[in-house]
């Protein structure tokens, strides 16, 4: 009997403590809501940002567009179209070099999920740069570790601007849950019109989003008179293995930066599919008609090979290469960045 009474008392005390914790949490939540006040903005497009201490717009607004619709336009949509050689106005574009969580109020490592989307001048519909569900988080170990981007799926068109919508959350931080999962949420913009007033800048530029519980850096290059290059890698022979382990990197002749198409350390090894084609994390690069495209294949075992392509208004180029034990076919399909 005494043992039973003791067990019952212990259970009752634990239930009492749990109830007290719940009441405290509810009270804190109520106080936070009272401090926020009423949202003066449209709640469909806004959220409370603790860094601003106010409600801010976090989503793109459009009177008629279905904001949940993904852009139906994919890569190579103009490859077979014929454009006039004279008097044709080339559109501008941007390459998203990398995205980093440059600072975190929660510290590191972070298990991050959510979305980053671009809305460009072509149709303002969703073009995903980053998209992960809660059960497929990326572990970010430091401010220097970039998000593994899987887009854009086509060349981004800048007539007036590109709008970026960020909605990143933390499943946990170093194994512990956080009260507010919102790591970064808000809007960024690359203004294409203002940039045309200045001489070209052949360097990586950065847009910063200071929001929620972090600072996010979006690093990009602004590409004038752009064509889209879609990269395909095909393994012809791979020695003793049928997968690729290493890096595939793109850069253009005017910009001193690497655009990571695939890094096996971050995105996993590549297994050859039908016809030996490997599915890299990213495959699209925007290139000015005044530049060349440089593609570097770096095998983890040590072999490195770089091939160079001259952009075209359409059609494709391909070259066979040997890198370490791999024999590969590198193909670039060209398309005008245009409606």
From TrEMBL:
InterPro entries: DUF6598 (IPR046533). Residues 1-11 have a biased composition (Polar residues). Coiled coil: none annotated. Residues 1-47 are annotated as: Disordered. It comes from the Eukaryota. Pfam families: DUF6598 (PF20241). Residues 94-332 form the DUF6598 domain. This is DUF6598 domain-containing protein. It comes from Triticum aestivum (Wheat). The lineage of its organism: Eukaryota, Viridiplantae, Streptophyta, Embryophyta, Tracheophyta.
């Amino acid at each position: 009997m005494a043992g039973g009474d003791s067990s019952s008392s212990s259970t009752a005390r634990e239930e009492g403590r749990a109830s007290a914790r719940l009441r405290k949490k509810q009270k804190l939540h109520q106080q936070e809501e009272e401090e926020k006040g009423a949202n003066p903005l449209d709640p469909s497009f806004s959220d409370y940002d603790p860094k601003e201490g106010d409600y801010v717009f976090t989503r793109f607004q459009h009177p008629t567009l279905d904001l949940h619709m993904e852009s139906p336009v994919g890569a190579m949509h103009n490859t077979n179209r014929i454009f006039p050689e004279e008097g044709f106005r080339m559109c501008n574009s941007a390459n998203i070099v990398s995205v980093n969580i440059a600072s975190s109020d929660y510290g590191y490592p972070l298990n991050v999920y959510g979305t980053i989307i671009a809305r460009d001048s072509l149709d303002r519909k969703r073009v995903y740069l980053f998209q992960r569900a809660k059960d497929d988080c990326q572990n970010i170990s430091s401010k220097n570790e970039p998000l593994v981007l899987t887009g854009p799926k086509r060349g981004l068109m800048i007539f007036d601007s590109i709008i970026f919508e960020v909605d990143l959350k933390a499943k946990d931080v170093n194994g512990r849950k956080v009260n507010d999962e919102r790591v970064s949420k808000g809007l960024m913009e690359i203004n294409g019109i203002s940039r045309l007033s200045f001489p070209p800048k052949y360097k990586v530029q950065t847009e910063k989003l200071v929001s929620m519980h972090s600072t996010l850096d979006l690093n990009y290059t602004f590409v004038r008179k752009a064509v889209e290059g879609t990269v395909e890698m095909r393994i012809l022979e791979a020695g003793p293995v049928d997968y690729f382990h290493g890096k595939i990197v793109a850069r253009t002749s005017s910009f001193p930066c690497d655009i990571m198409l695939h890094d096996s350390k971050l995105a996993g090894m590549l297994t050859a599919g039908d016809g030996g084609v490997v599915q890299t994390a990213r495959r699209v690069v925007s290139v000015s008609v005044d530049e060349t495209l440089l593609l570097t294949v770096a095998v983890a075992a040590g072999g490195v090979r770089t091939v160079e392509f001259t952009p075209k208004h359409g059609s494709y180029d391909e070259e066979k290469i040997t890198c370490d034990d791999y024999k590969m076919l590198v193909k670039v399909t060209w398309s005008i960045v245009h409606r």
